[in-house]
Amino acid sequence: MRKKAVPAMTGGYRKGMAMGFDEEWAQLRAEATQRQATSTQLNGIPDDSGHGFGNNVLASTPQEKAAASRTIQDELLGSTSDAANKADESSKAAAKEFADWATGPAIKKLDETWDKQVKTLMNRLQTERDGLSGTAKNFAGIELDVRSQFSPLLISPYGAGTSVGDGQK
Q1: Across-strand partners of 6?
Q2: Per DSSP, what are the bridge partners of residue 13?
Protein backbone atom coordinates (compact mmCIF):
# COMPACT_ATOMS: atom_id res chain seq x y z
CA MET A 1 0.00 0.00 0.00
CA ARG A 2 1.27 3.37 -0.95
CA LYS A 3 1.07 6.22 1.54
CA LYS A 4 -0.06 9.54 0.20
CA ALA A 5 1.05 13.03 1.20
CA VAL A 6 -0.53 14.24 4.43
CA PRO A 7 -1.03 17.95 5.11
CA ALA A 8 1.19 19.04 7.97
CA MET A 9 0.32 21.68 10.53
CA THR A 10 3.08 23.84 9.08
CA GLY A 11 1.09 24.25 5.89
CA GLY A 12 3.21 21.93 3.73
CA TYR A 13 3.03 18.25 2.84
CA ARG A 14 5.23 15.51 4.19
CA LYS A 15 5.61 12.88 1.49
CA GLY A 16 5.81 9.21 2.19
CA MET A 17 4.91 9.25 5.87
CA ALA A 18 1.69 9.97 7.69
CA MET A 19 2.35 11.63 11.03
CA GLY A 20 -0.09 11.57 13.90
CA PHE A 21 -1.14 14.75 15.64
CA ASP A 22 0.82 13.99 18.82
CA GLU A 23 4.01 13.27 16.89
CA GLU A 24 3.72 16.40 14.79
CA TRP A 25 2.84 18.52 17.83
CA ALA A 26 5.92 17.21 19.67
CA GLN A 27 8.09 17.98 16.64
CA LEU A 28 6.70 21.52 16.36
CA ARG A 29 7.30 22.14 20.06
CA ALA A 30 10.88 20.91 19.76
CA GLU A 31 11.49 23.22 16.77
CA ALA A 32 10.02 26.18 18.69
CA THR A 33 12.23 25.38 21.68
CA GLN A 34 15.30 25.35 19.46
CA ARG A 35 14.37 28.75 18.00
CA GLN A 36 14.02 30.20 21.51
CA ALA A 37 17.38 28.89 22.69
CA THR A 38 19.08 32.19 21.79
CA SER A 39 16.77 34.40 23.85
CA THR A 40 17.98 36.54 26.77
CA GLN A 41 18.00 34.92 30.17
CA LEU A 42 18.73 36.54 33.51
CA ASN A 43 20.78 34.34 35.78
CA GLY A 44 20.89 36.79 38.66
CA ILE A 45 20.55 40.38 39.73
CA PRO A 46 23.26 42.98 40.29
CA ASP A 47 24.80 43.15 43.75
CA ASP A 48 24.50 46.94 44.00
CA SER A 49 21.71 48.21 46.23
CA GLY A 50 20.81 51.31 44.23
CA HIS A 51 17.28 52.46 43.57
CA GLY A 52 15.33 50.64 40.92
CA PHE A 53 13.99 47.24 40.12
CA GLY A 54 15.12 44.32 42.20
CA ASN A 55 15.90 45.90 45.53
CA ASN A 56 13.92 45.87 48.74
CA VAL A 57 14.07 49.62 49.30
CA LEU A 58 11.22 51.98 48.58
CA ALA A 59 11.94 54.26 45.65
CA SER A 60 11.65 57.37 47.82
CA THR A 61 11.26 58.47 51.38
CA PRO A 62 8.42 60.65 52.68
CA GLN A 63 10.88 63.55 52.70
CA GLU A 64 11.72 62.97 49.02
CA LYS A 65 8.03 62.80 48.18
CA ALA A 66 7.39 66.06 50.04
CA ALA A 67 10.31 67.69 48.20
CA ALA A 68 8.97 66.48 44.85
CA SER A 69 5.52 67.83 45.75
CA ARG A 70 7.04 71.22 46.60
CA THR A 71 9.01 71.24 43.34
CA ILE A 72 5.84 70.61 41.36
CA GLN A 73 4.05 73.37 43.27
CA ASP A 74 6.82 75.97 43.34
CA GLU A 75 8.51 75.41 39.99
CA LEU A 76 6.67 73.24 37.48
CA LEU A 77 3.15 74.59 37.81
CA GLY A 78 4.32 78.21 37.65
CA SER A 79 6.76 77.62 34.78
CA THR A 80 4.19 75.68 32.78
CA SER A 81 1.59 78.39 33.27
CA ASP A 82 4.06 81.13 32.27
CA ALA A 83 5.15 79.24 29.15
CA ALA A 84 1.53 78.64 28.17
CA ASN A 85 0.67 82.32 28.57
CA LYS A 86 3.64 83.43 26.44
CA ALA A 87 2.67 80.97 23.72
CA ASP A 88 -0.94 82.19 23.91
CA GLU A 89 0.10 85.82 23.43
CA SER A 90 2.23 85.15 20.36
CA SER A 91 -0.28 82.71 18.87
CA LYS A 92 -3.18 85.12 19.28
CA ALA A 93 -1.10 87.92 17.70
CA ALA A 94 -0.16 85.69 14.76
CA ALA A 95 -3.77 84.56 14.29
CA LYS A 96 -4.85 88.24 14.08
CA GLU A 97 -2.09 89.08 11.59
CA PHE A 98 -3.06 86.20 9.33
CA ALA A 99 -6.83 86.46 9.85
CA ASP A 100 -7.46 86.99 6.12
CA TRP A 101 -5.32 84.04 5.13
CA ALA A 102 -5.98 80.32 5.57
CA THR A 103 -3.14 80.33 8.10
CA GLY A 104 -5.10 82.51 10.57
CA PRO A 105 -7.84 79.98 11.41
CA ALA A 106 -5.24 77.20 11.49
CA ILE A 107 -3.19 79.12 14.07
CA LYS A 108 -6.35 79.73 16.10
CA LYS A 109 -7.18 76.00 16.02
CA LEU A 110 -3.59 75.22 17.00
CA ASP A 111 -3.86 77.64 19.92
CA GLU A 112 -7.09 76.00 21.13
CA THR A 113 -5.46 72.56 20.95
CA TRP A 114 -2.41 73.91 22.81
CA ASP A 115 -4.63 75.32 25.55
CA LYS A 116 -6.33 71.93 26.00
CA GLN A 117 -2.98 70.17 26.22
CA VAL A 118 -1.64 72.68 28.75
CA LYS A 119 -4.78 72.28 30.85
CA THR A 120 -4.34 68.49 30.77
CA LEU A 121 -0.69 68.84 31.78
CA MET A 122 -1.54 71.24 34.60
CA ASN A 123 -4.22 68.86 35.91
CA ARG A 124 -1.74 65.97 35.76
CA LEU A 125 0.90 67.97 37.63
CA GLN A 126 -1.63 68.94 40.30
CA THR A 127 -2.73 65.31 40.65
CA GLU A 128 0.88 64.18 41.04
CA ARG A 129 1.57 66.95 43.56
CA ASP A 130 -1.49 66.02 45.60
CA GLY A 131 -0.62 62.33 45.42
CA LEU A 132 2.94 62.90 46.57
CA SER A 133 1.95 65.15 49.45
CA GLY A 134 -0.89 62.88 50.53
CA THR A 135 1.05 59.60 50.45
CA ALA A 136 2.76 60.06 53.81
CA LYS A 137 -0.54 61.10 55.40
CA ASN A 138 -2.30 58.09 53.89
CA PHE A 139 0.35 55.65 55.11
CA ALA A 140 0.22 57.10 58.61
CA GLY A 141 -3.57 56.82 58.67
CA ILE A 142 -3.50 53.26 57.39
CA GLU A 143 -0.86 52.33 59.96
CA LEU A 144 -3.03 53.66 62.79
CA ASP A 145 -6.08 51.89 61.41
CA VAL A 146 -4.28 48.54 61.16
CA ARG A 147 -2.78 48.99 64.62
CA SER A 148 -6.22 49.70 66.11
CA GLN A 149 -7.63 46.58 64.44
CA PHE A 150 -4.89 44.39 65.91
CA SER A 151 -4.79 45.91 69.41
CA PRO A 152 -7.61 43.69 70.75
CA LEU A 153 -5.63 40.65 69.61
CA LEU A 154 -2.47 41.53 71.53
CA ILE A 155 -1.82 39.20 74.46
CA SER A 156 -0.51 40.77 77.61
CA PRO A 157 2.66 39.27 79.07
CA TYR A 158 0.91 39.69 82.47
CA GLY A 159 -1.83 37.18 81.71
CA ALA A 160 -5.42 37.17 80.55
CA GLY A 161 -7.62 40.02 81.65
CA THR A 162 -4.85 42.60 81.54
CA SER A 163 -3.86 44.70 78.59
CA VAL A 164 -0.38 45.52 77.42
CA GLY A 165 0.95 48.53 79.31
CA ASP A 166 -1.78 48.76 81.99
CA GLY A 167 0.79 48.31 84.78
CA GLN A 168 -0.87 45.26 86.35
CA LYS A 169 1.29 42.30 87.24
Answers
A1: 14
A2: 7
Give me the pLDDT at residue 169, please.
47
Q: Would you tell me how many other CB atoms lie within 10 Å of the CB of residue 69?
A: 19
Q: State what percent of residues in the chain have pLDDT above 70.
A: 63
Which DSSP category does 138 fall into?
H
Q: Using the 8-state DSSP alphabet, how is residue 169 labeled?
A: -
Residues with Cβ within 8 Å of 156's Cβ and at least 6 positions away in sequence, in order, are: 162, 163, 164, 166
pTM: 0.47
Burial class of residue 72 (count of CB atoms within 10 Å of its CB; 0-12, 13-18, 19+): buried
Cα–Cα distance between 109 and 102 in angstroms, integer?
A: 11
Kind plus residue range of the DSSP H or E element containing 133? helix 103-150
pLDDT over threshold 80, residue 95: yes
* The pLDDT value given to residue 157: 64
> Where do the H-state alpha helices sit in 4-102?
21-35, 62-71, 77-97
| CB contact burial 98-126 (16+ within 10 A = b; e otherwise) | eeeeeeeeebbeebeeeeeebeeeeeebe
The answer to whether the beta carbons of residues 126 and 77 sit under 8 Å apart is: yes
